[in-house]
Amino acid sequence: MTTKKRVFSGIQPSGNIHLGNYLGAVKQWVEGQDEKENFICVVDLHSLTVPQDPVELRFQTRSLAAVLLASGIDPDKTTLFIQSHVTAHAEGCWLLNCVTPLGWLQRMTQFKDKSAKQESVGMGLLDYPVLQAADIMLYDAHEVPVGEDQKQHVELCRDIGQRFNHIYEEEFFIIPEPKIPQDGARLMGLDDPTVKMSKSLAYTRGHAVRLLDEPKEILRSFKKAVTDSGREIRFSDDPEKAGVNNLLGIYKAVTGKANDEVEADFANARGYGDLKVGVAEVVIEFLAPMQARYKALMDDPAELDRILAIGAEQAAAVSMPKLRQMKEIMGLVLPVSSD
Ligand code: ATP
Ligand code: LTN
Q: Is 114 assigned a catalytic role?
């Protein structure tokens, strides 16, 4: 039996994956692969909670899986799969819905933000964190590596798990811990450093650095990044300096350097223009090999499908038995196998 800690995390195929997703989440998944047992899920059902174009969603789902592989997710070490391929997630969500108080969901910051932006709010948007709780707890995951914005959802998952355990069977669910990285946990938009860099806004030019952007597009986005009227290139908590701080944070997370080393790299800069070009250069260099691997994977769709089919099988082997146990302790009659 494995003694490795089990990790579960997910990412929505809701648009073009950006540097915030990579530094906040994907980087941790890749780095933890050797010492942890990783389950990484492309959460297509979560994406349906806001309107999606079906053709685009299908493309983004496969493209995102290819980006994750190109970023270093190794299918021999990590189970990578598409959420809708494993039916336990939707079923587990229903069962958890029945123990989750409505008020807990109405309080979620992401629900409040996203519902304010929709003309008509679907039930799925409110239920989003319950599906996320099913994702995590069906795998008995100990750790959930995510960016800062997902902390509240993982805390809610803990509450749902504790409530379920209390009602039905103590210690049935493992209560997971969120894992937030020290650097890059919350990248801000280049066009507006007061809002989180987000996939849904990544269609706006100059907002996000998308992992698949061409070098000249990346350089253009950084050159247009909003800063302030000063010249000092230092880390700071001053809200006025949020733009410069965001650029330095990106440089730091990509290069792995300490704050003083980062500041020393820009000690001779003539102004923010040099900072922007300096950050763009390290990002472009960092993304180039990943982009080449992505192209190769997208040119071989059969191999991508094969990897995802194996992932779904491995994921189902863990989550389907857990779902069955859940049903049993909740009092459902389990079907008798016909063979
Ligand atoms: P959407 O805008 O569609 O909600 P998103 O960009 O927030 O998408 P998700 O798929 O919801 O992306 O998130 C995937 C992972 O990336 C999560 O762990 C999330 O915390 C992390 N993440 C998202 N945005 C950022 C960001 N700006 N900085 C750091 N991490 C982020
Ligand atoms: N809500 C998450 C995506 C997600 C997730 C998960 C993350 C769905 N299920 C399980 C961690 C664990 C987001 O990033 N917006």
A: yes
